[in-house]
Sequence to fold (290 residues):
Amino acid sequence: MQVYVREARESDREAVFEFCRHTWSWGDYIPHVWDKWLKEANGKVFVATVDDVPVGMQHITIDKSGEAWLSGARTAPQFRRMGVATAITVKCLEYAKSMGVKVARLVTEAVNTAAIAAVQRMEFKPVAEFIEMELEKPSSKESASSCWADVSQLEDVWSFLQTSEVYRRAAGLYTILYHWYSLDMLDLERFIQQRKAVVHVDGDGAVCGLMLVDDAVSSDWRENAVQTCYVDGDFEAVLDMAKFLLAHCQTKGVEKIYGFTCNHPPIIEALEKAGFKKPDSTAIIFEKRI
Ligand SMILES: CC(C)(COP(=O)(O)OP(=O)(O)OC[C@H]1O[C@@H](n2cnc3c(N)ncnc32)[C@H](O)[C@@H]1OP(=O)(O)O)[C@@H](O)C(=O)NCCC(=O)NCCS
Fold:
Protein backbone atom coordinates (compact mmCIF):
# COMPACT_ATOMS: atom_id res chain seq x y z
CA MET A 1 0.00 0.00 0.00
CA GLN A 2 1.46 3.37 -1.05
CA VAL A 3 0.76 6.20 1.43
CA TYR A 4 1.28 9.70 0.06
CA VAL A 5 1.24 12.83 2.28
CA ARG A 6 0.38 16.29 0.98
CA GLU A 7 -1.20 19.53 2.15
CA ALA A 8 -4.96 19.30 2.54
CA ARG A 9 -7.26 20.85 -0.05
CA GLU A 10 -10.78 22.15 0.31
CA SER A 11 -11.92 19.21 -1.86
CA ASP A 12 -10.72 16.72 0.83
CA ARG A 13 -13.50 17.88 3.13
CA GLU A 14 -16.08 15.13 2.40
CA ALA A 15 -13.60 12.24 2.67
CA VAL A 16 -12.05 13.65 5.87
CA PHE A 17 -15.42 14.33 7.51
CA GLU A 18 -16.53 10.82 6.60
CA PHE A 19 -13.64 9.07 8.34
CA CYS A 20 -13.96 11.42 11.35
CA ARG A 21 -17.66 10.66 11.74
CA HIS A 22 -17.21 8.14 14.58
CA THR A 23 -13.81 9.12 16.04
CA TRP A 24 -15.34 9.46 19.52
CA SER A 25 -18.69 8.28 20.84
CA TRP A 26 -19.99 11.86 20.40
CA GLY A 27 -18.44 12.34 16.92
CA ASP A 28 -15.54 14.70 16.27
CA TYR A 29 -14.69 18.41 16.36
CA ILE A 30 -12.77 18.35 13.05
CA PRO A 31 -15.78 19.55 10.93
CA HIS A 32 -16.04 22.62 13.20
CA VAL A 33 -12.42 23.66 12.73
CA TRP A 34 -11.72 22.48 9.15
CA ASP A 35 -12.44 25.81 7.40
CA LYS A 36 -10.52 27.79 9.99
CA TRP A 37 -7.54 25.43 9.90
CA LEU A 38 -7.31 25.50 6.11
CA LYS A 39 -7.18 29.31 6.10
CA GLU A 40 -4.72 29.78 8.99
CA ALA A 41 -1.68 31.90 8.26
CA ASN A 42 0.48 30.14 10.86
CA GLY A 43 -0.81 26.61 10.35
CA LYS A 44 -1.25 23.79 7.87
CA VAL A 45 -3.32 20.64 7.55
CA PHE A 46 -1.68 17.60 5.98
CA VAL A 47 -3.57 14.56 4.69
CA ALA A 48 -2.36 11.07 3.84
CA THR A 49 -3.90 9.55 0.73
CA VAL A 50 -4.11 6.01 -0.62
CA ASP A 51 -5.09 5.82 -4.30
CA ASP A 52 -5.75 9.58 -4.15
CA VAL A 53 -8.33 9.20 -1.37
CA PRO A 54 -7.65 10.87 2.04
CA VAL A 55 -7.28 8.26 4.81
CA GLY A 56 -5.63 10.35 7.53
CA MET A 57 -4.97 13.92 8.61
CA GLN A 58 -3.11 16.11 11.07
CA HIS A 59 -2.90 19.83 11.83
CA ILE A 60 0.18 21.84 12.80
CA THR A 61 0.58 25.44 13.91
CA ILE A 62 3.78 27.40 14.40
CA ASP A 63 2.94 29.41 17.47
CA LYS A 64 5.93 31.48 18.34
CA SER A 65 9.51 31.38 17.31
CA GLY A 66 10.79 27.83 17.55
CA GLU A 67 7.58 26.11 18.74
CA ALA A 68 5.04 23.97 16.92
CA TRP A 69 1.79 22.42 18.09
CA LEU A 70 0.33 19.24 16.54
CA SER A 71 -3.36 18.43 16.78
CA GLY A 72 -6.20 16.62 15.04
CA ALA A 73 -4.32 13.38 14.23
CA ARG A 74 -6.87 11.05 12.64
CA THR A 75 -6.56 7.83 10.66
CA ALA A 76 -9.59 6.22 9.00
CA PRO A 77 -10.46 3.15 11.13
CA GLN A 78 -9.79 0.64 8.31
CA PHE A 79 -6.30 2.15 7.67
CA ARG A 80 -5.00 2.12 11.24
CA ARG A 81 -1.74 0.36 12.21
CA MET A 82 -0.40 0.86 8.68
CA GLY A 83 1.93 3.78 9.39
CA VAL A 84 -0.49 6.52 8.24
CA ALA A 85 -0.27 8.75 11.36
CA THR A 86 3.48 8.24 11.49
CA ALA A 87 3.87 9.31 7.83
CA ILE A 88 1.81 12.47 8.39
CA THR A 89 3.70 13.37 11.57
CA VAL A 90 7.04 12.97 9.79
CA LYS A 91 5.80 15.40 7.12
CA CYS A 92 4.56 17.87 9.77
CA LEU A 93 7.93 17.74 11.54
CA GLU A 94 9.82 18.28 8.25
CA TYR A 95 7.66 21.32 7.59
CA ALA A 96 8.19 22.57 11.17
CA LYS A 97 11.93 22.15 10.89
CA SER A 98 11.97 24.11 7.63
CA MET A 99 10.24 26.93 9.55
CA GLY A 100 12.95 27.00 12.23
CA VAL A 101 10.97 25.06 14.84
CA LYS A 102 13.07 23.51 17.59
CA VAL A 103 10.35 21.80 19.62
CA ALA A 104 7.03 20.22 18.65
CA ARG A 105 4.33 19.41 21.20
CA LEU A 106 0.94 17.72 21.33
CA VAL A 107 -1.59 16.58 23.93
CA THR A 108 -3.37 13.31 24.35
CA GLU A 109 -5.72 11.91 26.95
CA ALA A 110 -3.95 9.59 29.39
CA VAL A 111 -6.47 6.87 28.43
CA ASN A 112 -5.75 7.09 24.67
CA THR A 113 -3.40 4.11 24.48
CA ALA A 114 -3.24 4.10 20.65
CA ALA A 115 -2.18 7.74 20.43
CA ILE A 116 0.30 7.37 23.29
CA ALA A 117 1.87 4.28 21.72
CA ALA A 118 2.10 6.04 18.35
CA VAL A 119 3.74 9.24 19.64
CA GLN A 120 6.16 7.35 21.89
CA ARG A 121 7.19 5.22 18.91
CA MET A 122 8.03 8.53 17.19
CA GLU A 123 10.17 9.47 20.21
CA PHE A 124 7.93 12.16 21.68
CA LYS A 125 8.52 12.33 25.46
CA PRO A 126 5.85 13.04 28.10
CA VAL A 127 6.76 16.34 29.81
CA ALA A 128 3.71 17.33 31.84
CA GLU A 129 0.31 16.15 32.99
CA PHE A 130 -2.61 18.58 33.03
CA ILE A 131 -6.15 18.24 34.24
CA GLU A 132 -9.33 20.02 33.18
CA MET A 133 -11.55 20.69 36.18
CA GLU A 134 -14.95 22.37 35.96
CA LEU A 135 -17.06 24.62 38.12
CA GLU A 136 -20.63 25.64 37.25
CA LYS A 137 -22.36 28.73 38.57
CA PRO A 138 -19.56 30.43 40.53
CA SER A 139 -20.75 31.79 43.86
CA SER A 140 -19.09 34.70 45.59
CA LYS A 141 -16.36 33.84 48.08
CA GLU A 142 -14.14 36.32 49.87
CA SER A 143 -10.44 36.18 49.11
CA ALA A 144 -7.87 37.53 51.58
CA SER A 145 -4.66 38.33 49.68
CA SER A 146 -5.28 37.92 45.95
CA CYS A 147 -5.73 40.58 43.29
CA TRP A 148 -5.11 41.30 39.62
CA ALA A 149 -1.37 41.62 39.05
CA ASP A 150 -0.01 45.04 38.25
CA VAL A 151 2.60 45.56 35.51
CA SER A 152 5.00 46.76 38.24
CA GLN A 153 4.93 43.18 39.64
CA LEU A 154 6.13 41.56 36.42
CA GLU A 155 9.71 40.95 37.62
CA ASP A 156 8.49 39.61 40.99
CA VAL A 157 6.04 37.21 39.38
CA TRP A 158 8.68 36.06 36.90
CA SER A 159 11.16 35.44 39.75
CA PHE A 160 8.49 33.47 41.60
CA LEU A 161 8.04 31.23 38.53
CA GLN A 162 11.76 30.63 38.13
CA THR A 163 11.95 28.86 41.50
CA SER A 164 8.50 27.29 41.35
CA GLU A 165 8.15 23.51 41.60
CA VAL A 166 4.80 23.77 39.76
CA TYR A 167 6.34 25.69 36.85
CA ARG A 168 8.94 22.92 36.59
CA ARG A 169 6.30 20.16 36.77
CA ALA A 170 4.21 21.98 34.17
CA ALA A 171 7.31 22.01 31.90
CA GLY A 172 6.90 25.80 31.86
CA LEU A 173 3.67 25.48 29.86
CA TYR A 174 0.25 27.14 29.98
CA THR A 175 -2.85 26.37 27.97
CA ILE A 176 -5.48 28.27 26.06
CA LEU A 177 -8.34 25.95 25.08
CA TYR A 178 -6.56 22.61 24.36
CA HIS A 179 -3.37 24.20 23.07
CA TRP A 180 -0.25 24.46 25.22
CA TYR A 181 2.44 27.15 24.89
CA SER A 182 5.67 27.89 26.72
CA LEU A 183 5.09 30.59 29.33
CA ASP A 184 7.79 33.16 28.82
CA MET A 185 8.13 36.66 30.21
CA LEU A 186 6.39 38.29 27.25
CA ASP A 187 3.35 36.04 27.67
CA LEU A 188 3.29 36.84 31.36
CA GLU A 189 3.47 40.56 30.64
CA ARG A 190 0.58 40.26 28.16
CA PHE A 191 -1.58 38.40 30.71
CA ILE A 192 -0.83 41.08 33.30
CA GLN A 193 -1.51 43.96 30.90
CA GLN A 194 -4.81 42.40 29.86
CA ARG A 195 -5.84 41.97 33.49
CA LYS A 196 -5.81 38.21 33.20
CA ALA A 197 -3.24 37.41 35.89
CA VAL A 198 -4.24 36.94 39.52
CA VAL A 199 -1.44 37.03 42.09
CA HIS A 200 -1.36 35.99 45.71
CA VAL A 201 1.01 37.74 48.11
CA ASP A 202 2.25 36.69 51.55
CA GLY A 203 2.36 38.84 54.71
CA ASP A 204 5.54 40.57 53.49
CA GLY A 205 3.97 41.39 50.14
CA ALA A 206 6.05 38.78 48.27
CA VAL A 207 4.38 37.00 45.35
CA CYS A 208 3.60 33.39 46.29
CA GLY A 209 0.86 32.42 43.85
CA LEU A 210 -0.21 32.97 40.24
CA MET A 211 -3.37 32.16 38.31
CA LEU A 212 -3.59 33.05 34.62
CA VAL A 213 -7.07 33.21 33.10
CA ASP A 214 -8.53 33.65 29.63
CA ASP A 215 -11.95 33.91 28.02
CA ALA A 216 -11.19 32.29 24.62
CA VAL A 217 -13.57 29.47 25.62
CA SER A 218 -16.49 31.89 25.44
CA SER A 219 -15.93 32.69 21.75
CA ASP A 220 -14.51 29.33 20.66
CA TRP A 221 -16.83 27.02 22.57
CA ARG A 222 -19.71 29.53 22.60
CA GLU A 223 -20.15 29.27 26.33
CA ASN A 224 -20.44 31.98 28.93
CA ALA A 225 -17.22 30.72 30.49
CA VAL A 226 -13.59 31.43 31.34
CA GLN A 227 -10.67 29.11 31.91
CA THR A 228 -7.57 29.05 34.02
CA CYS A 229 -4.48 28.71 31.81
CA TYR A 230 -1.87 28.22 34.51
CA VAL A 231 -2.19 27.82 38.30
CA ASP A 232 0.71 27.99 40.74
CA GLY A 233 1.08 28.19 44.50
CA ASP A 234 0.52 26.12 47.64
CA PHE A 235 -2.92 24.98 48.84
CA GLU A 236 -3.75 28.23 50.65
CA ALA A 237 -2.56 30.48 47.84
CA VAL A 238 -4.50 28.57 45.17
CA LEU A 239 -7.66 28.42 47.28
CA ASP A 240 -7.49 32.17 47.88
CA MET A 241 -6.90 32.95 44.18
CA ALA A 242 -9.77 30.61 43.26
CA LYS A 243 -12.05 32.55 45.62
CA PHE A 244 -10.94 35.80 43.96
CA LEU A 245 -11.71 34.36 40.50
CA LEU A 246 -15.10 33.03 41.61
CA ALA A 247 -16.08 36.42 43.00
CA HIS A 248 -14.97 38.11 39.77
CA CYS A 249 -16.95 35.62 37.67
CA GLN A 250 -20.05 36.05 39.77
CA THR A 251 -19.85 39.83 39.40
CA LYS A 252 -19.45 39.49 35.63
CA GLY A 253 -22.22 36.89 35.29
CA VAL A 254 -19.83 34.18 34.01
CA GLU A 255 -21.60 30.82 34.33
CA LYS A 256 -18.75 28.33 34.13
CA ILE A 257 -15.03 28.08 34.87
CA TYR A 258 -12.78 25.49 33.27
CA GLY A 259 -9.92 24.89 35.68
CA PHE A 260 -6.97 23.82 33.56
CA THR A 261 -3.97 23.11 35.75
CA CYS A 262 -0.88 21.00 36.06
CA ASN A 263 -1.87 17.80 37.90
CA HIS A 264 -0.24 18.77 41.21
CA PRO A 265 -2.10 17.40 44.31
CA PRO A 266 -2.13 20.59 46.48
CA ILE A 267 -3.56 22.57 43.54
CA ILE A 268 -6.20 19.96 42.75
CA GLU A 269 -7.22 19.79 46.44
CA ALA A 270 -7.49 23.58 46.67
CA LEU A 271 -9.60 23.79 43.50
CA GLU A 272 -11.84 20.99 44.77
CA LYS A 273 -12.26 22.86 48.04
CA ALA A 274 -13.30 25.92 46.00
CA GLY A 275 -15.98 23.81 44.28
CA PHE A 276 -14.28 22.54 41.12
CA LYS A 277 -15.01 18.97 39.97
CA LYS A 278 -12.27 16.61 38.83
CA PRO A 279 -12.56 14.75 35.49
CA ASP A 280 -12.00 10.99 35.01
CA SER A 281 -8.94 11.38 32.82
CA THR A 282 -5.88 13.60 32.61
CA ALA A 283 -4.10 15.08 29.60
CA ILE A 284 -0.46 14.30 28.85
CA ILE A 285 1.67 16.82 26.99
CA PHE A 286 4.34 15.24 24.78
CA GLU A 287 7.28 17.03 23.25
CA LYS A 288 9.95 16.25 20.69
CA ARG A 289 13.09 18.28 19.99
CA ILE A 290 13.67 18.47 16.26
C1 LIG B 1 -3.97 7.47 17.15
C2 LIG B 1 -4.07 7.24 15.66
C3 LIG B 1 -4.05 8.59 14.93
C4 LIG B 1 -2.88 6.38 15.22
O1 LIG B 1 -2.95 6.29 13.81
P1 LIG B 1 -2.29 5.07 12.97
O2 LIG B 1 -2.25 5.53 11.55
O3 LIG B 1 -3.01 3.82 13.27
O4 LIG B 1 -0.83 5.00 13.59
P2 LIG B 1 0.46 4.28 12.97
O5 LIG B 1 0.01 3.16 12.06
O6 LIG B 1 1.36 5.29 12.38
O7 LIG B 1 1.07 3.64 14.29
C5 LIG B 1 2.45 3.71 14.60
C6 LIG B 1 2.72 2.86 15.82
O8 LIG B 1 1.99 3.34 16.93
C7 LIG B 1 1.61 2.23 17.77
N1 LIG B 1 0.15 2.10 17.77
C8 LIG B 1 -0.74 2.73 16.99
N2 LIG B 1 -2.01 2.35 17.31
C9 LIG B 1 -1.89 1.46 18.31
C10 LIG B 1 -2.84 0.72 19.06
N3 LIG B 1 -4.17 0.82 18.83
N4 LIG B 1 -2.38 -0.08 20.04
C11 LIG B 1 -1.06 -0.20 20.28
N5 LIG B 1 -0.10 0.46 19.59
C12 LIG B 1 -0.54 1.29 18.61
C13 LIG B 1 2.24 1.00 17.15
O9 LIG B 1 3.54 0.85 17.70
C14 LIG B 1 2.31 1.41 15.70
O10 LIG B 1 3.30 0.67 14.99
P3 LIG B 1 2.97 -0.86 14.53
O11 LIG B 1 1.60 -0.87 13.93
O12 LIG B 1 4.05 -1.11 13.52
O13 LIG B 1 3.09 -1.69 15.77
C15 LIG B 1 -5.38 6.46 15.30
O14 LIG B 1 -5.51 5.34 16.17
C16 LIG B 1 -6.64 7.30 15.41
O15 LIG B 1 -7.06 7.97 14.45
N6 LIG B 1 -7.28 7.27 16.60
C17 LIG B 1 -8.50 8.06 16.85
C18 LIG B 1 -8.17 9.55 16.97
C19 LIG B 1 -7.10 9.82 18.00
O16 LIG B 1 -7.05 9.23 19.07
N7 LIG B 1 -6.22 10.79 17.66
C20 LIG B 1 -5.15 11.21 18.51
C21 LIG B 1 -5.61 12.28 19.38
S1 LIG B 1 -4.29 12.83 20.39
